[in-house]
Design a protein that fits this description.
Layout (H helix, E strand, L loop, with lengths): L6 E6 L3 H11 L4 E6 L10 H12 L5 E5 L8 H9 L2 E2 L5 H6 L1 H10 L3 E4 L1 H5 L1 H7 L10 H5 L4 E6 L4 H14 L2 E6 L3 H12 L9 H4 L1
Helix pairs in contact: 2-3
């Protein structure tokens, strides 16, 4: 019997740890992941082209190709590429929504439009990506320009890690924002990957405790 072809997940680098953790925890050995650099969020014009290149390089070697990206600032360019290539992506404009789920995210955004969000990835790399990335270490006077319209920092955590909660709380204090912690788990990311694992005829069943 011929070996079953694997499924390829093309992911944002900011999701690499979560995606590989889910694959390992659930034994989804038939799922493979390749990532684009996380810093593409600073230059979203590169995302669609980067995803397209990975899709075309992978053609014929996988049972299916799926994309773990929101629109992420591409203004529809990513979806146009995926339509041309016949490839599906996880639903939603960004990872905050698919971690929380669309109904909960919409309710929070409507009730508190001035929310700045962190995920586990952003909490781990807050100093590099936010403080140094925006130049606040060199020009602290710019903080009101960047964050003056925000009122609350909401940390959406994927795993239980008191150290990350403390780092996120410190980030809120650094930015002068109220702090809120919501334990979302992997949300729609876990459910989408479960469907990906099932899609090529493998059992693909996930332990709900590993998706929480």
């Amino acid at each position: 019997m011929a070996a079953r072809l694997p499924v390829l997940l093309i992911a944002c680098g900011a999701l690499a740890r979560e995606v590989t953790d889910l694959i390992r925890a659930n034994g989804w050995d038939h799922l493979e992941v390749t990532c684009l650099p996380a810093h593409f969020h600073n230059t979203p014009q590169h995302i669609a082209g980067g995803v397209a290149a990975k899709i075309r390089a992978a053609r014929g070697r996988y049972a299916d190709i799926l994309v773990l990206y929101g629109d992420c600032g591409t203004a529809g360019a990513l979806d146009r590429v995926l339509e041309e290539e016949g490839v599906e992506r996880i639903a939603g404009p960004h990872c905050y929504e698919f971690y929380m789920g669309a109904p909960d995210f919409s309710a929070l955004a409507e009730a508190e439009p001035g929310c700045f969000f962190l995920t586990d990835y952003l909490a781990r790399h807050f100093d590099r990506l936010i403080v140094k990335g925006l130049g606040l270490d060199r020009f602290p006077q710019l903080l009101p320009d960047y964050f003056g319209n925000y009122t609350r920092l909401v940390y959406l955590s994927q795993v239980d890690d008191p150290d990350l909660v403390a780092e996120a709380a410190a980030a809120a204090e650094r930015l002068g924002l109220a702090f809120e912690h919501r334990r979302t788990g992997y949300g729609e990311l876990g459910r989408f990957m479960t469907q990906a694992a099932q899609g090529d005829g493998n059992d693909g069943r996930a332990d709900d405790r590993l998706l929480a």
